[in-house]
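Instructor's aside before we start: the two examples that follow are unrelated to each other. I chose them only because their records fit on one page, so don't look for a connection. First example below.
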Amino acid sequence: FGDYTLTVLGNIYIFIILAISYNLINGVTGQFSLEPNGFVAIGAYVTALLMLSPEIKADMYMIAEPYSFIQNLFLPNPFLVLIISGIVASLVALMLSFPVFRVRGDYLAIVTLGFGFIIRIFLINNPEISNGSMGLDSIPGFASYFWIGISALITIILIYNIVYSKYGRAMKAIRDDEDAAVAMGVNGFKIKTIAFMTSAFFEGVGGGLLASSIGSISPDQFTFMLTFQLLIIIVLGGLGSISGSILAVFLFIGGMEILRPLDDATFDLGFIHGVPGLRMVVFSLILLIIMLFARRGILGNREIWDIIKIKKD
């Protein structure tokens, strides 16, 4: 493959990690959370701060001098850095779970949406930590496309085992009827917190891989648009479906790239001419048509291997 194809594949693998981890809290557990951009940002910045040497940080911070503990942070081991990034995001999720899970439904969405805005504002207004709006660059590119793919495979296996464990069954019970689940002895707060922390962990790891893959990060990369893209993906694939989320990532990222020539003014098929912005119009129409005929997503809450088994029977 050429560099362009490998770059697209790397983005697909990263979005698979982000999508199936987001689906764990939103689809499997049924909690309408809008927080992924915040946890992805935490993972990306923790990875960048750990991988950048003190000398590079000293030259990079232009708005304000970095705090001494920030400048001296340095861990050249990529594996440990990704684990730490996930743990930091998971610990933030633990602290956030106490106020977040006191509400449900739309109120939960509003609270988690606010968290994403808070993280971005914090990164902009604390240049001693994050270099402010200028962001961080020269991040070591330790995440090759092969290792990003391996990380995505590990994430799929772990999330799959969680979903089909006793904790996964409890998450599904909360999604279907939380009051009935609690009445049957399920600790609602504990199960939702486990799902929230697990989702945040993998989102933090995905953020670290994203930072390494791109090589530079800034607060503008972690707006609500990132959450909105992930929400489209998990709804398109089917809430609660792991394989549906994977399929939707390929359709979403791959479809956007396949339609890219439509933005080129020189593109001409006779009956259609390239116009800047036409790609998004066509892609939006395709999504609209899919959702009209598959209102629960492409696979619904089923897995593709379950559908194959049913057809064989």
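Example two begins here.
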Amino acid sequence: MKIISLVLLFSVGAGAMAPLLAADEAFYIAPAGNDAWSGTQPEANATGNDGPLATLDRARQLVRARIAKGLTAPITVNIRGGEYALDSTVVFSPEDSGTKSCPITYQAYRDEQPIFTGAKPLVGWKPCTSEPAGLPEVAKGKLWYCDSPA
């Protein structure tokens, strides 16, 4: 009797978790992706003409297009590890929502860590040619500067 109830519990538990393990439709984003690609593959294909998307915004556009056609299956957007530079704040709205039976999920790709940043790299560093007044002796000859991005 105990064996039967254990098997039944396992079956119910596995069935309840199935939607969390695999989505019926998936998109992928990767730092080396391309927004002209389909986004339906986690890596670029052998010919280099299809693979993951490059941006969260493009994935959201594709998800919204699927929502507009009418959802028939859950959608998961898997975000590969790496750094993603954002030019503006990402804002999700009601038009990005799924339904109870067809949820929309944005998640990190398994065992990877995506990082979204609005930081801009500072490049073109040059040594200062004139030192500011009152500069401590220990800092003289050690100052550098660069132009900050807009």
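DSSP finds two helices and seven strands in the chain.
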